Amino acid sequence: MILKHHLVLTLCAVYGILLKGSSGQHPLVQNQTVTEGRTAIMTCRVEYNDQTSLQWSNPTQQTLFFGNKKALRDNRIELVRASWSELTISISEITLADEGMYTCSLFTMPVKTAKAYLTVLGVPEKPEIDGLTKPALEGDEITLTCMTHGSKPAANLRWFRNEKEIKGAKEVNASGKTFTVTSSLQLLVDRDDDGAAYTCKVDHVSLLQTPQQTTEVLEVHYAPRALITQSLTFPQEGQYLKLECVSKGNPSPDPVLWTKDGGELPDLERMIVQGRELTFSALNKTDNGTYRCVASNHLGTSSAEYILYVYDPNAMGQRGPDHALIGGVVAVVVFVTLCLIIFLGRYLARHKGTYLTNEAKGADDAPDADTAIINAEGNTHAEGKKEYFI
Ligand SMILES: *[C@@H]1O[C@H](CO)[C@@H](O)[C@H](O)[C@H]1NC(C)=O
Ligand SMILES: *[C@@H]1O[C@H](CO)[C@@H](O)[C@H](O)[C@H]1NC(C)=O
Ligand SMILES: *[C@@H]1O[C@H](CO)[C@@H](O)[C@H](O)[C@H]1NC(C)=O
Ligand SMILES: *[C@@H]1O[C@H](CO)[C@@H](O)[C@H](O)[C@H]1NC(C)=O
């Protein structure tokens, strides 16, 4: 009984020594990463403490707090919690200069320390796009450059053309503690780029909720390209016809000019020009001819031609153009089929004849029927030649 009691006491004593010793009485800290402008919370803990003071000091070894006593005059630094087992302070409005190794000291003999590295993230500025000429001309080669300052670590820049990602050439330059990142995009300007939105986005660890981006919309000037579309495929006398001069250009072409056979439009009562459209209220055979429209802006001129052939509804019969076309197709199919039948018939008849006439000759020295035919054909050729030379 006494022996057992003694053993328990001994165990307690050993445990006590362990508690007071190296394992329990040691400051514990953690590295911190804080975005500039935010607040850093620095916590130092001791599991078992026999009323020994704790202290936080900054990278330049200045004491910030000794227990609950503030040591450095800096409004940004405040006490959060001070007890024998914890010393927590906060540093608000963090700047890049606050980055470094912070030390928590426990004033045992000898002093025990723990080091926490405070990493400050530099927030990239809103990117700027440079190199845009407004307006750009079709065929121009331009280089768009997107730049953002102040990121730490270096930000990533991404380009999008109308929401679709495209690859740019990135360059990173260090300036002090932060980085200046640029990304350039080489473009051969096309008329399709007119109105295209080019967006430069910044990706960075410090921008989780508010991505930074800038968009520029391209304006491209280009010469018009004219093209005539018609409302009827087979215009007939008396029908209504609309011709449209489709001419896209930027700036928008001046009113288009219509001519007929190189001269002015005749009879403006039945032909009406309205904007880009030329309409015939009722077609007449006399409208036959070559119609041309000309569109131009300060970058160039383009023209298109349309040859009008007014069909005579009487000459085409009552069936109309579509029936005529189907009739034509049917006629061609019938004709081709007939030709095939005649050709096949003649081919088969000729072959059958050759086979029959030569079978006897070839069969003598040939092992089978096929070889017999080949031999026979060879013979006829030779005979033909002989006849020729006689
Ligand atoms: C804390 O940061 C320092 C310096 O960057 C590094 O050497 C150390 O390994 C880090 N400690 C932990 C626990 O991440
Ligand atoms: C980055 O540095 C390179 C080389 O030092 C220099 O040629 C280039 O102009 C710099 N770019 C920017 C955007 O400062
Ligand atoms: C076509 O024009 C001629 C002369 O202008 C006119 O006599 C004729 O009636 C017209 N034909 C039709 C179908 O309008
Ligand atoms: C219109 O053109 C067609 C084909 O070129 C021709 O057969 C017809 O006679 C022309 N009509 C007139 C009025 O010139």
From TrEMBL:
One of its GO terms (biological process) is homophilic cell adhesion via plasma membrane adhesion molecules. Its main location: membrane. It is found in: Membrane. Residues 1-24 form the signal peptide. Residues 27-119, 127-216, 224-309 form the Ig-like domain. It is a single-pass type I membrane protein. GO terms for cellular component: membrane. The chain crosses the membrane at residues 324-344. Keywords: Disulfide bond, Immunoglobulin domain, Membrane, Repeat, Signal, Transmembrane, Transmembrane helix. InterPro entries: CD80_C2-set (IPR013162), Ig-like_dom (IPR007110), Ig/MHC_CS (IPR003006), Ig_sub (IPR003599), Ig_sub2 (IPR003598), Ig_V-set (IPR013106), Neurexin-like (IPR003585). Belongs to the nectin family. This is Ig-like domain-containing protein. The gene is LOC112238761.
